[in-house]
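Posting for a labmate who doesn't have an account.
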Amino acid sequence: MMSFIRKNAIRVPVVWLVMSLMIVPFPPAGRMIAHGLSLQASVWTVDALSKVFRASQPPSTPQTSIDLIAAKNEYRAAQIAIRSDVPLSNLNVQVHDLIGVNGQVIAASNVSARFVDYIELSQHTQGLSSEQLLTAPNGSMLYPDRITNDSQLASLAAHTTQPIWYSVYVPKLTAAGMYTGQVTLQADEGSYTVDVALEVYDIILPDTNETDYKVDNWFSSAGWDPTTWTYLEQQYGIAKWSNEWWTVLEHFADYMAKHRNNTIWLDPIAYLEPDAQIHADGSYTFDWSRFDRTVQLFIDAGAMKYLHGVSIFSKRDGRYHVQMLQDENGSAKLAWVPSQSTAANDWLNHYLPALHDHLLKKGWLSIFYQSGGDEPYDQQDHADNNWLYQKIHQLAPGVKTIEAHHLFNNVYEGNLDVYVVKQDVYDANRSYYQNRQKLGDEVWLYICNMPTGEYLTRNLDAPLAHVLLAQWYAFKNGLGGYLHWGFNYWSNGDVLNDADAPWPGDSWLVYPDQAGYDLFSSIRSEIQLEGIQDLELLRMLANNGEPVLAHQIAESLISGGTQYNTDPASIKLARKNVMDALTNRLTNDVFVDPLDHFEGIYRKSNGFLIDSSNPEVAAGDTGRLSRVQNTEEFIVYYKPNIRSFSAKFYSDSGSDVSFYVSGDDENWTPLTVEAGQPVNTEYGWFGYKLSSSEIPWGTNYLKLVFHDTNPHEWLPQLGEMVLTYGYVMDGYMIDPLNSLSNIYDMSDKWGIDSANAQMADGDNNRLTRLENTDQYIVYKGANIQSFAATFYSDSSDLVEFYASPDNVNWTLVPHSDGPVWSTAYGWHGVTKSASGIAPGMNYLKLVFKAANANHWSPQLGQIYIYNDPM
């Protein structure tokens, strides 16, 4: 029989928060092997998400091998750190082929190992919370970021840690399976060899120009902000439109193809400037050859699927101005005139139809997005933008309008096609943007210098996981794209060594390789790539018939802009679960904590020790958790989606322990446990087990509270904790209705209500109708057996349930109502359920009836569905 739990017992979706590196989901592939001279040096491996500082010391139990998992057509990385008590000379790194179990090869040409360089910050990120601020062990303001193109280092000073970025690309035709190889570190003083293990999954990611997820890192080439493209020329020492300038753009295109930046930010007006002709009657003749050459350059590199036209507006003297071309001594030059002015109207009446016709001719019309005024602020900004959007739709039909918003507003409906919103704005107005999506608009994620605080940033002194988790956030919320304003908005200073301020790392993600007219990558950019790859994997899982599972895994890492888990091991485990699910290998895992040490505990109060004395009282157990004084103390375990546990205790009398569960380490719910039969040990002591297999889905934290009501501080003692955890759903599907993504089919008048949570037991998201007519939703699952749905209402709650084997022929399912409980403001809650549904029913339909008193009532808070795939 299925056991249902009221939604206010535990919050869904759920969040993992930051934890120490205790989870090691994959055993080491091998050990560090030392060759040559004996050195006073340490070599250890580090995950790609941890920043290695000059003063970083090797951990007490270092990893000495690299362990990676990857799909085909993706990059995955790790780091090698080296630190010596004596100077090292002529240090170089050599990569080798990775060999599969049947002799398959990932050639060394697909592998790289490059030294990481440091950037000096003049100040820490303005507003970044102390919890998210990363600081060097010695307080240095040097932060690792730029990845050099070098695998050789002339010298490494003593007592200085040097990270090496190790990266593998897995070609599409690579056979799935395990691959092993080595990395060799060679110096005049000796050498080291580090073992590598890579598991390749039988999954192929789409190419950059094949996916419909938009990645849009604004980059400077020509136009938009004249200062920034001037700095582009200054950094390389080149002139615009020169052969070297075009070489730089070619390298930009190659870089963006590799890093899945498929939306290309260009200013058509700036590309028209050198060759445009302005006639005496005010008409224009446009030569599109420079623009076409640039677009084709990105197409040929495999970097482009979408085009984004640079903002036509620029803020000058407090008012948006239109960028245009004006005659200056017989030549066309960029100029700006006030929005809605006669000159602006005349210009747009010429330019927009010409843009439309050229895009149509080239076949680029359907992929072109046009921005108006970036980050509109006041009523005048809104009026100017709406004026421009209307002109675009009128004069260039087919061009989509797009804008980045740092504040919420709802004045663009019908004029704006793509809302690009910051996390704080989206978090606070999720239901509004989900409704815009349902009406056909796109919504993207916008990351910029603010907000900082606890929000995800890509700053140099913030966790690298922030950069990756932004993509998990985008997937979790069903967002269609990602935009950041600063790919290479360099200053005219020494950008290879000094950071921008006051948000270091916000203005540029890459660095100019001046000698090669190329780019240096950064560890932040590589982690952004890994996050985009993760998003593609999640999208594949959702599109392969597992949307609920994909969202559950995503929500276990992140549920909001300030609620997330940055632990590298947890992120790798979540990725592994996605890949295992895609290849039908997903299983639940078991964690055993013998309590011989504290390492398996996520968090604890201070009043504990490990007791190894008198093992005979504990059936020979030489390590048990015990209090040091008779005060209330607690421990917390953390694992993704805890399913059950069994705790082994020893005592001679009292055993007053309580258990609590949480999804987010903040909201705790008491858990009822089962007590096993006591078994006598020695000296009047006995052992017993407390366990539960009825833990709500989405529990990531288990808290044990040892109460001060026990007769002695040493009672009881915890000898062993066994946790099962994972995402194998065992026939359950739980939809928390925080979005519409888990619904298989629906009518067209639905929204997510986030207001007045108190009338719904604190539930921040409920499904509600937008008009008082019959509206339906449909869930899909193999052989649905039963369900339980929690509703909230201020009057009637008329809902009918139907089941179908084929989504065509429907049968009414009788249901029963549970007890009604009061909430707030005259509202009430009720659970409607049914069991024993006829075999072979693969679809469940809920019909909210027009006979209800109001369109907003009832609201669906969550639904549990049990199916038996047999």
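Reply:
Got it, the structure tokens are right above this. The chain has a mean pLDDT of 91.
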